Structures are given as structure tokens and as C-alpha cells.
């Protein structure tokens, strides 16, 4: 462990997180959520990894069906490894991926270089730089990590009039 830590410190420019690497290899679609299973009665022993991958894809599609304004950027709050932001982009939206995790930001910047990223906690987002910018704010399995007393006042400030806040947690 000491040797790995020492070598990691030497190579600070090399951003590699073992957990992120494991997830990306086991879950090639790069989702960090459990998915949406249409049959909630299915037992874990009866599921395959492909069932989980399919459920993750279904979940993302269901959530993204609620994002409707293509004319304004979408802030993907707690974007994980960027899979949902990438889906948004493929659907013709302009996503902005937000996460405080430097490994996730580095992964997104490398894999999806055309997606804008913001590395910060949502509660610390500089409001003046983002005021009234977004047609949609998206929390996909990320609201649970936020301090609601700080977040709720930000929502109205960041959304354009008539904008939408999509939350699935």
C-alpha cells in the first residue's frame, strides 16, 4: 500500500482512481446508479450483469425523457462519470457536468472532451457565473448528497423562467 501511495504521489499528473476504474470496467456504460427494474419482484440471484446494465440504461432514459428544453444548457448535478451528460449530448442537449470529484472530472474531460465540466460542490457553485443560465437542472441519484437548506435557494436563481428541475433519487 505504501508503494502504491508513493508512486501515486510521484505521478500526480496521472489521474487514476481505482474505484472509478473498477466501475468503468464492470459497468461499461459508466452509470453509477442501480437502475430501474420493471419487475421489482425479481430476486438478486436471478439477475445477470446484463440485467443490471439494461436496468441502468432504462433508468437513464426514463429520467432524460423529462428533460425537454434543448434550447438552453442542462446542469447535470453530481454527474458521476458523465454517462448521463453524454446521453444528453447525443440527444441534442448542451450538458454541463458538475461534480466535486477530481477523478470524475478528469475522466469526463478525457472521455467526453466536448462536455463542459464544473468541479465544485453544487452548494459552492458561483451563482453570479451561472444565474439564469439553465433550462434544466438535473439531480440523478445526487440530491441525497446535497445540503437542502443551501441547495433550494440556488435552484430558482440558476433556472431560467419556466425552467425545470428534474430529480430522481
Shape: globular
Spatial order of strands in the largest sheet: 3-2-1-4-5
Helix-strand string: HHHEHEHEHEHE
- The count of DSSP E runs of length 2 or more, i.e. the number of strands, is 5
- Report the portion of residues in β strands: 15-25%
Question: How would the blueprint of this fold be written?
Answer:
Elements: H1 2-10, H2 18-26, H3 49-64, E1 74-77, H4 83-90, E2 95-99, H5 102-111, E3 116-119, H6 127-130, E4 134-140, H7 148-158, E5 159-168
Write a structural description.
- The structure is a single chain.
- The chain has 169 residues and is α/β, with parallel strands linked by helices.
- The protein is built from seven helices and five strands, in the order αααβαβαβαβαβ.
- The protein has helices spanning 2-10, 18-26, 49-64, 83-90, 102-111, 127-130, 148-158; strands at residues 74-77, 95-99, 116-119, 134-140, 159-168.
